[in-house]
Amino acid sequence: MKSQVLVDMDGVLADVYGQFIKMEYRDSGIRLKREDLCGKSEEEAFPSFNRHVREAGFFRTAPLMEDSVEGLKLLNDKYNVLIVSSATEFPGSLIEKQQWLNEHFPFITWEQMIFCGRKDSIKGDIMIDDHLKNLRYFEGRKVLFSQPHNMCVQDQMYQRVTGWKDIMEML
């Protein structure tokens, strides 16, 4: 039986930091840099966070993380992959996230998409996520995808990756 790999969407497949940076510049003229956001939560880093995540098109037009299509295809061929996204916090994101996945990852079927609130009840062998709150209670192998908000974390419970090339080499 194939191992089950749970893959987060925002911050792992979708470059939401790039999306926030672009929208913050569009709205305020402030050009934020990723390196200046280290150690800050997304709500702290982006003054218009709450408005942007509720804006129509935010999730639908998010850029791809580099190498994510190739990396997810490789995982999907080798493992039982499920995309697990905390989408119900922003109900408007549900259809946008599904459309985004269908466009960029056509090899992922509707049966492989789990849109939920908390992820602590989702079971699998490996979880790839950028948020500690999602990995903390996971019982399998925990892979922390580097993003500015988690750069201060130096916990041995998590295996850190800096991008999809690391994931492809590791798995």
Please characterize this protein's 3D structure.
It contains seven helices and six strands. It has a six-stranded parallel β-sheet. The chain is globular. The longest helix has 13 residues, at 16-28. It starts with a strand and ends with a helix. The chain has helices at 16-28, 42-45, 49-53, 68-78, 93-104, 132-135, 164-170; strands at 4-7, 80-86, 113-116, 126-129, 141-145, 159-161. α4 runs parallel beside α7 (164-170). The mean pLDDT is 95. α6 (132-135) links the parallel β4 (126-129) and β5 (141-145). It has 171 residues and is of the alpha/beta class. It comes from Parabacteroides faecis. Belongs to the 5'(3')-deoxyribonucleotidase family. It holds the Pfam family NT5C.
Please work out how many helical segments DSSP would assign. Answer: 7
Low-confidence stretches: none
Task: Give the terminus-to-terminus CA distance.
Answer: 16 Å
Question: Helix content range of the residues, please?
Answer: 25-40%
Structure class:
alpha/beta
Estimate the mean pLDDT confidence. 95
Count of β-strands: 6
Q: List SSEs in N-to-C order.
A: EHHHHEHEEHEEH
Question: Order of strands across the biggest sheet?
Answer: 3-2-1-4-5-6
User: What form results from the Cα inertia axes?
Assistant: globular
Radius of gyration from the alpha-carbon trace, in angstroms:
15 Å
Topology (SSEs and partners):
Blueprint: E1 4-7, H1 16-28, H2 42-45, H3 49-53, H4 68-78, E2 80-86, H5 93-104, E3 113-116, E4 126-129, H6 132-135, E5 141-145, E6 159-161, H7 164-170
Parallel strand pairs: 1-2, 1-4, 2-3, 4-5, 5-6
Helix pairs in contact: 4-7
